[in-house]
Amino acid sequence: MAALRDEWETARATRQEEVIQRRATVLEELAHCQQSREADAAQMRASLAEHYAAVQDETNLYLTQVEQQRRAMARQTAQQLKEFDAELRSAVADQRAANQEDLFELQQATQEKLAGHMHDRAVMRSRQAQALSEYVVELEDVVADYLAEIKENREATAVVDRAQRHRDREALTEDVEALREEFTVYRQQMRDFREDLRQSVWGDAVPQAAPAAPKPPKSAAKSRPAAARKSPTKAKPVATKPATMKSVAKSNGAKAPAPAAPKATPAKAAVPTEEAVFEYLQDHNDGARLTEIESTLGINRFQAVDALRSLIQKELIVQKDRTYRIQEEAVL
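Request: output the structure for the sequence above.
Response:
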């Protein structure tokens, strides 16, 4: 047992020695490796430093060359810019000179055109003045001819109006003469009626002289009502009244009343006959005669003649061959 123990311890001591030797060998190899690595590192640092210095020298040389090239290009560019500026200034000066020449030529052309236009305007003004003076002379001649024509027309119209007035005056005179004759016949009939009445009332006895009735003036005869100027044929029935009145007087023994006076028509005389006659003629384009107007409107001869004369004087109607009609200008 003890031998085994001794053998184990011997083997143990041997193994411990072998471990110590291997540790020492490993440490020695590690130290050698560290020395070789340090030597390699130092050599590497030296080679890198040499390479850095070489690269730095090349870079400085390159920068120096680039700076020299840039300076040369800057001097060349400045020279080119200076030359371009000089050329540009020269071109601008030439262009300005050309523009000045063009402007001077344009001003001269404009002045010449203005002078030509002024001359044309003066010529045109003189021509227009001449044409206007001729037109004024022609217009004065036309106006003079027109005025002469108007004067001739007025004179012709005045002659026609005078002739028309003369014919109207003659027609009115004839109407007045006819009315006078009718009035003379009417007075004679009234005298006969008075003699018959006196004979029927008083017989053959001579009555007291009655005061002479005043002779009516001509104006009163003209203003007599229409009923008093009726034709003798219409007054005849009145003359038959005394016979009846005589029988009444004999039966009653009283004085017979005076014969009734003819009824007057003042209402019709007060009617504006001019408007009625004018409206009547407006409804009859072919005109109407004096008797037709009297009978239709129920007016007497004096009223009809006065209304027609007034309308003729107002140039509203005209008379032709005893026919009255509306004047064309009044219709328009």
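The radius of gyration is 79 Å.
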